[in-house]
Specification:
Distance between the termini: 107 Å
Number of strands: 21
Structural class: mainly beta
Strand content: over 45%
Number of helices: 3
Radius of gyration: 42 Å
Shape: globular
Amino acid sequence: MMTTSLNIGIRVKRIRETPFSPHFIHRLSISLVSCSSASPSISRNNGFSAIPNESSAHACNARGGMGNIEVHAAPPSTAPTGLGVPPPPPLTAPPPSPEASSGQAGKSSSKEDDDDKKRKLKNPGAYDDVHRKAKDVFPVPLTGCKLAVTKAMSPHFSVTHTLMLDQQQPSTYTFGATYVGAKQVSPVESFPIMMGEMDTSGSLSSQIIHLWRQGLRSKFIIQSLRGRFQGFQCDVEYRGPTYTAALALANPDLLATSGMLVANYQQSFSPNLMLGTEMMYQRSSGDQGSLLSFIGRYSTDTFIATASVSKVGLHMSYYHKGTPNSQVSVEFQSSSVNQESAVTAGYQLDYPKGQLTFRGSVDTNWQVTSTIEKKLLPLPCSLVLSGLINQKKQKCLFGIGVTIG
């Protein structure tokens, strides 16, 4: 059988660089060069053998002229037929320059820092709740006997019966109903909320709170007394990631051109600092007036300091959490209208093992107030004992309350 020996050489030509190909593009051309030594043979199945032997590689080294690049060995090819030549390298984009890469890295790092800062900032909450943390520590005294019974009629509807026997005020019975919708936005919040209360004196009050979309909520309040309209209030509030804006309209009367408009805005400037302002405008019977106030709050994990100031007075409060079971707060209020000031200091102690909470307060008006709340487990009820004494006015009051449900 006669065989013909061929040798495969690879010639590389360099193409002129163009703007679109910053690197050299290599074009491979295949030339068939006859060699004297042994080389892969042509088989009868009309194809070249893809695996050259060592003698063919040495032969190509000997015939390295004419600008050819000698190939000492070729990787095995899995193709059934063909020349076994590797494909040309793909066109790739030029690597970015060091300056451009450093600029992009700086931009990306600054953007990440801004995003981290925004994630650390929190919503400041409602304007009316800025002093609530300090006020929750102070006790609410009872001046008589109070019985409150709450009955859940369904997972969304409940009723409340409250009986109050008081020496300072007429005894009353209050019936209340609450409906909570199925739109749950958090473990403790569901919307819409509808509440109503009516007592034996003929006073009726109702309010509706609804969350229209994420961050946007509204509240409607209507009050009447013995069938006569007493007041109406509409609040719209929007809570953004780092700010809160609210607008309230109370008792609007287009015919008499009277009513009250209140707008407030709060902004978190850091994880600890919040600043805000409130503008109130009132018009009635041809008389009108406005009031501008400012508020600030600085909070950490252990204390909250809040201050609000306007031309009619100053209000400051301080809340401090000493231990997981103890809290203290101090409140200062000063009015430039009646030229009076008062300071109140209070504390709260919790005893988780005994299901007991004790609150006490003392102010500059010589009034001392304290309450003790005890949960009577396993019964779904709690007992509240309250005491109040004022040395200056020679007044001493005592109250007891029971809450069931």
